[in-house]
Structures are given as C-alpha cells and as structure tokens.
Amino acid sequence: MGNERGGTAVKGRIRQRPATFASQGLRPLVSALEASKTALHREMGGFGVVDAAGGNPADETDQAVLEQEVVFTCLLKQRVKMRLDQVEQAMQRLRSRSYGLCQECGRQIPLERLRVQPDATFCVPCKSRLESRW
Q: Which residue in 9, 58, 118, 133 could disulfide with 1, CB within 3.0 to 4.6 Å?
C-alpha cells in the first residue's frame, strides 16, 4: 500500500517509512526474526504424528489419554503455526519497507518494543486499547 513518495497508507492516512530504522540498523531485528523462524520450523518438525486410532489401547482410560494427547499436540501445532505466520508477516513487512509501523495508528513502533518483540504489529498504546476491548 505504498505511494510515489514512499509512504504507507494506514487507515486512510499516508505514513512515511521509518527513517530512523535505517540509521539505527535493522540487522539485530532481522537476525532475531530469522532465528525465531528457524526455531519455529524446528519445533513444527518435532511434533511427529500422533494418531488416536493407532495402536490398540488396553482400556478406555488409555484411549482417553491418547485422545487427549492428540488434542494437545494439535493445539500446540496450531500455536506454533500462528507464531510462525506472525514472524513471516514481519519479514514480509521488512521487504515491503512497512516494518515498524503500527497497523492501527500508523506511527512508528518504538525500537525498544521491536527489540523485545520483533514481530510486533502495534505500538503499546494501540495494543493496550485493542486488548481492553476484549
């Protein structure tokens, strides 16, 4: 959603790309995102296949435990996949030069926040406001 001046449209407004990021260097943030992506891929590969129908549990309790393991593993995989999607979206924002802009207000997300959470999509005030609505 860029324009000819290099800005980014956010909720109908045009925001300039964060100039200070270029001078401060994005390399540590890029490295953190790449490390997260690698770790999440490794975690996804470590889940293996759990099959509730596989094997022949001796009793109903064993079957219930096996089914619980399947559900728990599916939930964990879903959570890791969601985190992986967030990291990949942050990397896409880096490529499109919209990284570091709050998706709610369009202002630059402070570098300190991005150091803590490199895939952040909202500044702290907007994130707090959005969470208070829930």
A: 9
